[in-house]
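Chapter summary example.
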Amino acid sequence: MSIDLFADRLQKDLLVFDGAMGTELYRKNFFINVSFENLVLTAPDTVQSIHQSYIDSGCDVLTTNTYSANANKLSRFGLADKVEDICTAAVKLARKCAHGDTLVAGSIGPAGELTEAYKNCDRAELLSAPAKALAMAGADLIIFESLSSSADVAA
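The structure predicted for these 155 residues follows.
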């Protein structure tokens, strides 16, 4: 979908986004001891069922399960090298449920408190890697969610 088509759609329609992915995963007995983002690889049926429930409720935009899919946050689970795999799988799962003119938004959350391995890393680099992977995988738009740090906003 082109930016012009997205902008046109916004001018004509009220777009309803899906709800919180993390809350729904928690309700399905996944807790903070696992990477919610990695579930697109290890429990794709669960993630897809959540997307489907949002489609069934009438949403216009599905948000990928990639909120913490940056190398810094994924490194806490030994998954820093999985950014591209996770982002690609997340877009594919959302696309499976999307229909007609449903949009897929690639979600990017804050870089978080930098771990020892990433303390000297450029935050822009941490946040641009998932953005690029989501765009390459076919996300219609990228949304930055809950950026409360000025460093993340600047990045």
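To summarize the output: The two ends are 25 Å apart (CA to CA).
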